[in-house]
Amino acid sequence: MLSLIYLTGSVTFIVGLKMLSNPATARRGNAVAAAGMTLAILGTIFLYEHNGRHLRNYGWITAGLLIGGVIGFLSAKRVKMTAMPEMVSLFNGMGGACAALISVVEFNHMIRAFSGGVEIDHLQLLIVFAGLIIGAVSFAGSVIAWGKLNGNIKDITFGGQHIFNISLLAVMLILSVYVIAAQPPFTGILFALILLLSLVYGVFFVLPIGGADMPVVISLLNSFTGVAAACGGFLYNNPVMLTGGILVGSAGSILTILMCKAMNRSLKNVLIGSFGGTHGGGTAKEQGAYKEISNADMAVVLAYAHKVMIVPGYGLAVAQAQHACHELENLLEARGVEVRYAIHPVAGRMPGHMNVLLAEADVPYEKLLEMEQANGQFNTTDVVLVLGANDVVNPAAKKDPASPIYGMPILEVENARMVVVNKRSMKPGYAGIENDLFFQPKTSMLFGDAKHVLQQLVAEIAQI
């Protein structure tokens, strides 16, 4: 019966992940995978048997499930869409911590068994250390990422940081190989030291990362947690835990590679802990003046356009303006204007942030164009309305070799006939650099809170 439950749980994970690839079935896919996980947990609690003994301590298990379930439910219910990336990062860190704790518990069991004369399996010991290191790095790194996303932790770099990180990693691996190979003397002190070094490495791995690179880091740490969970599945010979960990690890790794391509960055730089760190920018240059456009004039421009492309960014999320944006879209389409959305793969603070934001406002998925599709349509677009996006539309990524984001693929909005950028002010974006787009002749600035501006545009267009 338990084998059948584990098989069912594994299948629901695979089916749920497949359904997540389409917005029309994503919510149902999430529910399917959650149902499989619930079934696997209940099956383990009530049916798992080892050496003729079932699990005990049902009171502690139930208390843990209730406390964790209530905290998770309330956190997910109350979180704002703008805070979703840091919540995802924090929850991912909890998964890494659990995987590391499994390794701690199993190592203690092995020490007791070894003291009783039982020979230790080298492969199992290797898996314990893999789960410990990867889980601890994921936990510490995710906590730092959470702090950086909510603004409490700043980017920190220092000379020789790469060498320091590589040295930490090398010491962890050497100590792990020594403990695995040496067995007697089987010491817990080295194990504790490896755990501490893993936590320190996780901190310094993420500390220098900044700018628009954070989505890649979240994806990479997510894959780490999946691999660490798979190690737990190996230790307990638990197929559903193994399957879930492998799915998360492989999906996170693939997404990390896709994000790196979208940012034109090297995965090698991610692994040595320098990804997206502070770059030495080029010399400051005179940009000239920018021009503003009023809400009334912008309303006329939109009302009489044939094709409008909207580029959502973090500013849209901060203002919670997705519903007002959808209302503007519906109003324009009622007047015969074609409206589409251009989605950069790393817009926002995590992969898919803009897709989730617009799906919350019931924007049809077919109207969301990926970067390559959108770039092919800008030259036939009358007006591009940029809502809070900055670095992902900065032409310096293509034209200025001295720019920190040089080489990053961008949404080529400057190819449209007219570009209007909505921002609160002229402050630079998340990458901390000025945007050349704002000073181009065909660009106009529309200052103000995105939600308030969109509501005003809707009111103005309705009167035309």
From TrEMBL:
A Pfam family the protein falls into: PNTB
Catalysed reaction equations from the record: NAD(+) + NADPH + H(+)(in) = NADH + NADP(+) + H(+)(out)
Record field: transmembrane: 6-24, 31-48, 60-76, 88-105, 125-146, 158-180, 186-209, 216-236, 242-260
Subcellular location: Cell inner membrane
EC identifiers of the protein: 7.1.1.1
EC class name: translocase
Domain of life of the source: Bacteria
Listed GO CC annotations: plasma membrane
Membrane topology, record value: Multi-pass membrane protein
PANTHER family: NAD(P) TRANSHYDROGENASE SUBUNIT BETA
Family assignment from sequence similarity: Belongs to the PNT beta subunit family.
Name of the protein: NAD(P) transhydrogenase subunit beta
Native source species: Chitinophaga tropicalis
